[in-house]
Amino acid sequence: MDYSYMVVAFIEKVPVGEIIEPPKHPHITVKKKFKLLGINEEELIQLLQNDKTIKGVKELHLGEIKDYENDQNKIIEVLNPDAWTDLHHNILTLLDSYVESRDPHFEGDNYLPHVTWKLRGKVTLDPEHLKDQTHRIRTIYLIQRVDPVISRARVVALINL
Q: Measured by CB atoms within 10 angstroms of the end CB, which terminus of the chain is less buried, N or C?
């Protein structure tokens, strides 16, 4: 699995080393799937932990439930997208020469911060307790997919904001 890494912001804390199914854990994807180029995992973690442009607690203001592309995919909108777009762009800039993105068409100007709760017709989590809520996010996570078919990932590192 070449494009196995992601950077996400979970709403609830998840311990390092935990194997999880990300769709079942409310989160915003900050950097979609990527593979490493000329950097190893330890160096990537150090790069993320030491960068000043991604520091600072983020507020996550969630709003209403919306369709994403069609009624098979539903999201909870982010009411303060600028903070998340800035974080996304800073991480893109930081990782630019060290990674290759699998889906660059969903990044940069096309990045849409959101929380997915229904994916390809399958409900992954209950959105009712998340919508119209504000959360303080103090940590982002580096995760790595561990299964090529099932959406399972290992929490590799947490990065304090």
A: N
